[in-house]
Amino acid sequence: MKKYPEHKIKVPRFKEEHGFYTTKERSKLMSKIRGKDTKPEVILRKTLWNIGVRYRKNVKKLPGKPDIVISKYRLIIFVDGEFWHGFNWEEKKTKIKSNREFWIPKIERNMQRDKEINEQLKSAGWTVLRFWEQEVKKEFGKCIYEILQHTNIEHFKFYESI
Questions:
Q1: In Å, what is the CA distance from 12 to each residue of 33, 60, 81, 109?
Q2: CA 34 to CA 148: how far, in whole Å?
Q3: CA distances, 152 to each of 1, 98, 144, 148, 158 (Å)
């Protein structure tokens, strides 16, 4: 049994008999949300591959199934969606209007799990980088620069001059 450093957040099941509801339109939209191979992830991976960084993606043997694993440098990269992982959470959670009893514990549990995964990976000797999707989209060069700082790749000097 896993011991949690703080109280494990319990997420209620999303069922209509529990008072949760969804429309067919909302259900259709939600079904299109990707858990892996998002556009920011793919762009980041393609760039890393093109500059010679070799990696594995979505490694199931590691906690959290990291988006990108660069084993040679013991580096793990996650690209987190703002809604699902609680970007600017204290402000955003007040804006959730429907099914609050489900969504607030759901996202807070995701945030709690992210911390647990980071701790597990760090204690196993990995360096963990987490980027928000919007960060990859808007500050792409900064993200690549940060990744290359943790590697010995010569391209690091190239990005440093930009």
A1: 21, 26, 21, 11
A2: 27
A3: 39, 48, 13, 7, 12
Q: Which residues pair with 78 in a beta bridge?
A: 130
pLDDT of residue 154: 62
The pTM for the full model equals 0.79
Contact yes or no for 117/124 (Cβ under 8 A): no
pLDDT digits (tens, 9 = 90+) for 82-93: 988 999 999 998
Pick the CATH number of 35-160 from 2.20.25.90, 3.40.960.10, 3.20.20.140, 3.40.50.10860: 3.40.960.10
Return the structure tokens found at 109: 């549990």
pLDDT at 66: 95
The CA R_g of the chain, rounded to the nearest whole Å, is 18
Instruction: Report which of residues 108 and 7 the model is more confident about.
Output: 108
Per-position DSSP letters for 9-32, written without gaps between them: PPPPP--GGGT----HHHHHHHHT
Mean pLDDT of 129-143: 96
